[in-house]
Amino acid sequence: MALSDETVDRLMGTGIPTVAEIEAKYPPRNLKEGQCVTRIAPSPTGFMHLGSVYAALISERVAHQSGGVFMLRIEDTDTKREVEGAAEFIIKALADFGLKFDEGPLNDHEEVGNYGPYVQSKRREIYQAYIKDWLKKGLAYPCFCSEDEINAMRERQTKAGGRPGYYGMWAKCRNLTEEQINANLDAGKPFVIRFKSPGKYINKIAIEDVCRGKRFFPENDLDIVIMKSDKLPTYHFAHLIDDHLMGTTHVLRGDEWLSSLPLHIQLFQVMGWNPPKYGHIAPIQKLEDEARRKLSKRKDPEANIAFYGEKGYPKEVVIDYLMNLANSDFEDFKRDNPTKTYLNFELKIERLNNSGPLLDFVKLENISKEFMATLSAEELYARLYEWAKKYDAALKQKMDTNSAYFKQILNIERGNCERVRKDFYMFSAIYPEIKYFFDDEFSLSAEEALSQLANLPKEDVKFIADTYLNLYNPNDTKDEWFAKIKEFALANGYAKNAKEITKNPDVKYKGTVSDVATVLRVLMTGRRESPDLYSIMQVLGPERVVQRLKLLA
Ligand code: GLU
């Protein structure tokens, strides 16, 4: 039933602009053929899901590939869930990942774009104007049911084996007369505003989803709440108004919203507005006990985007990884065009993985290893330093006091060398890999060294260390250094390699040249495996080398 202006003013107050005034402020966008306007619309809850960055990347790409517009809209009408500072966190996270929006809030009081405000709590009057319009047109009505009444109704519905919700004969306030409404207002009863759904649940409708193709749904018949008693709109209504006024052409969002699609389309239809194209992105999954499940905000630390910052995955790596999840042929593109970035790749919505891409840390680590291998020692140092500043004060201090030494360490097997090291993949794992360079961290005991070298008799290990101490010359070139080790080994009963041992079954070898080198390696690093030993010894410098060679003396 359409309500009179007086009753609508009593419900919603006066001094609110009219719909016509608002529409005039949001002229349609001047788009060229094919240009897309997308948005992400996160709620500031203090947590940013990896899936939200994934959806943001897809939305950003779709907009910018087409020469269109990418917007950020903060959906903060659910004041109970809002967390202080969360909007800033979202803005910063997008900037960190290089996902640049053309329109949206920049901070608490500034924004870019002509279709704002882009923070829903600043659009109160806009929603209220449309609510007034809907009440006058009979598209919405006030509902005075208390929470207890709603709960009791739900219980009855479930008991009777029916669908819970405010619809059809259960929609008690749907047919209140204007007099009844005014009497309730006189009595000071609180109310919400509900949408008067024209739909029938038994009707099936087909909707084209840009990710999933044609899908069939029952028509929406729920009289959902569109404005709460605090006079703030609910998400469904706010998204309708915003995407209409802001000229959104594509809503690409998580598939938890797929079930709301019939409602959303219906909301656009009752207004006679063109709905945007909707695409529902399948959630990122993980493998647990050989079964796939959705990445969970509650259970999985890696669902939180902050996890990647803390661990120290470079932002480019996270983005490239998400590109891989989105379009699996991105991997081929990267292999064929190693110097190009994801911005040169055309992401296709139709090619999204609709069964939910699987989070695979091995893949992520490999992408990261490849990326880190492209950094110079200076760049790696700078990035590690930035990371340490935020997450590891002790490391930052160590870098401050040993900056030149640190850069030399990071330069090992990097830059102009035959084989760039590819074992670094996250900043938090770098220091543990190199800490043997620092005497205060290097606590190898003679017993530990000997137990790592248990393949050789103790006396032989000692002999190698003692003899090498006399041969060692810090000025040797790499060739000289290696020739010395080899010469010493061959002269003392070690084979050139394992092949030589097999070839001469009658000769009693003590081991191989490589075994001799391993003795030195363990003494220098405390490990049997390491990057290039010559470089390590060069960086350690004669004083440390000599001291470490004397461990068994
Ligand atoms: N505010 C909604 C959310 O937090 C956005 C849904 C949409 O993109 O339409 O997920």
Outline the structure in words:
The strands form seven sheets. Strands 5-6-9 form a three-stranded antiparallel beta sheet. Strands 1-2 form a two-stranded parallel ribbon. The termini are far apart. The relative contact order is 0.08. It is mainly alpha-helical and 553 residues long. Helices cover 45% and strands 10% of the residues. The protein is built from 23 helices and 15 strands. Helix 3 crosses helix 11, helix 11 packs across helix 13 and helix 14 packs across helix 16. It has four domains: 170 residues, 3-Layer(aba) Sandwich (Rossmann fold); 85 residues, Glutamyl-tRNA Synthetase, domain 2; 61 residues, no CATH class; 107 residues, Arc Repressor Mutant, subunit A. Glutamic acid binds next to helix 8 and strand 10.
Number of strands: 15
Portion in strands: 5-15%
CATH superfamily of the largest domain: HUPs
| Strand order, sheet with most strands | 5-6-9
Look at the helices and sheets and give the structural class: mainly alpha
Mean pLDDT comes to 95
- In the CATH scheme, the class of the largest domain would be Alpha Beta
CATH architecture type of the largest domain: 3-Layer(aba) Sandwich
Shape: elongated
First and last CA, distance: 98 Å
CATH topology assignment of the largest domain? Rossmann fold
Q: Low-confidence parts, pLDDT < 50 over ≥5 residues? A: none
Unique ligands: glutamic acid
Structurally, how many domains make up the residues?
4
Helix content: 40-55%
The number of helical segments is: 23
Please compute the radius of gyration using only Cα atoms: 33 Å
Characterize the main sheet. Answer: 3 strands, antiparallel
